[in-house]
Specification:
Elements lengths: L7 H4 L4 H13 L6 H14 L3 E5 L2 H11 L7 E5 L4 H9 L3 E5 L20 E5 L10 H10 L5 E3 L7 E2 L2 E2 L6 E5 L13 E5 L2 H10 L4 E3 L2 E2 L10 H10 L3 H19 L5 E2 L7 E2 L5 E5 L2 H10 L29 H9 E4 L7 H16 L1
Parallel strand pairs: 2-3, 2-4, 5-8
Antiparallel strand pairs: 1-9, 6-7, 6-13, 8-9, 10-11, 12-14, 14-15
The chain binds pyridoxal-5'-phosphate.
Length: 366
């Protein structure tokens, strides 16, 4: 049996009604900003439970523009996780700021207990990452941010509809950044991103700077950039949005099924699953003994398991100028050697999941 990682072929097989929407849309010529984008933003805000949403051209830009409107700039420090996807750190660098890392804990997210020692006079934002769809513990992180009067920006790119105590990812910070990249849980047909916020001033600034700072056709209020969510992708987003809850539910069901089976294997270590968290499993990631051998065994048996990532971001060549060295973030280091990600998406069949479980079980039994 083959268990593929990417499900895009399956997801977009039956799209006749979307093509009809697209045909109608193309005939309007409403290609930048415009009606479908307004509608998408309104519906996205409703979905997340935020007051406002602003479509931008990627999740990376959702982070970058969030930092920009909060006044983060050259030489400022932004505290983030030592084990995130490169885009979090790339966005910090793009505004001229310096990433200051905090180690993760057994949730794969920033360890709240280590944030305070990373704060300096130059800290201008705290940027937790809801990694794998598991929310960073904002019940502990937000009070720290408030106490030091440092704005919190959530990298919620992997965490659409993730929640703690029913409060969704993206609604805790001054802004929340989402990605609509084809490999994310809510995915359009190209790059795309969304920023959510409850703050009307931040909202107004974001709308300005994603569109060249143009107040109207002839007035440049501030210098911005071109980071509009393509309106054609807003059409795709509008078509897809109603299925977000179903996608989330299916991923949670799949992950729960994996958890149950893997908890019988002493060689697999499952992260904590607190009952007041909604973990949305952008990645189904666990810790495994003999990880490299397990990975090879899975691939040899047709399962596209992955490692996110073998080298933590803080040790990547592009960041060595910051003076980080191996061992600075020991939990991230240790996890990099034992994490493994199994396919968990909404299009997997029960047979495929059973096959993954059986293959992993066979590996440890032999
Ligand atoms: C995907 C991702 C991003 C960036 O999103 P893009 O839409 O690809 O620019 C940022 N942070 C994290 C954690 C991500 O997974």
């Amino acid at each position: 049996m083959k268990v593929r990682y990417s499900y895009l072929e399956q997801q977009f097989q039956d799209t006749e009604d979307l093509w009809q929407d697209l045909r109608k849309f193309v005939a309007t010529g409403d290609f930048t900003l415009g009606k479908p984008l307004n509608e998408f933003e309104q519906r996205f805000a409703e979905l997340i439970g935020s007051r406002y949403a602003v479509g931008v051209n990627s999740g990376t830009d959702a982070i970058k523009l969030s930092l920009k409107v909060l006044g983060v700039g050259y030489g400022d420090e932004v505290i983030t996780a030592a084990n995130t996807f490169v885009a979090t750190v790339g966005a910090i660098a793009e505004v001229g700021a310096i990433p200051v890392f905090v180690d993760c804990d057994d949730t794969f997210c920033m360890d709240p207990g280590q944030i305070e020692e990373a704060i300096s006079e130059r800290t201008k934002a705290i940027l937790p990452v809801h990694y794998t769809g598991y929310m960073a513990d904002l019940r502990r992180i937000l009070p720290i941010a408030d106490r030091y009067r440092i704005p919190l920006v959530e990298d919620a790119c992997q965490a659409i509809l993730g929640a703690i105590d029913g409060k969704t990812a993206g609604t805790w910070g001054r802004t929340g950044a989402f990605s609509l990249h084809p490999l994310k849980n809510l995915n359009v047909w190209a790059d795309g991103g969304v920023i959510v916020t409850d703050d009307s001033e931040i909202y107004a600034s974001l709308k300005l700077i994603r569109n060249h700072g143009l107040l109207d056709r002839d007035t440049v209020a501030v210098l911005g950039c071109n980071s509009r969510l393509d309106t054609i992708q807003a059409v795709v987003g509008n078509w897809l949005l109603p299925s977000t809850h179903q996608i989330t539910k299916k991923r949670i069901t799949n992950a729960t099924y994996y958890d149950k089976a893997f908890s019988a294997l002493p060689e697999i270590n499952i992260p904590p699953r607190p009952s007041d968290y909604q973990i949305v499993y952008h990645l189904y990631m666990v810790l495994a003994d003999k990880r490299d051998e397990l990975l090879r065994y899975c691939i040899a048996n047709g399962i596209e398991a992955k490692i996110h990532y073998p080298v933590p971001i803080y040790l990547q060549p592009a960041l060595l100028h910051l003076g980080n060295k191996q061992g600075d973030y020991p939990v991230a280091d240790k996890q990099a050697k034992s994490i493994i990600t199994f396919p968990c998406d909404q299009h997997l069949t029960r047979q495929e999941i059973d096959y993954v479980i059986q293959t992993v079980t066979n590996f440890y039994q032999n």
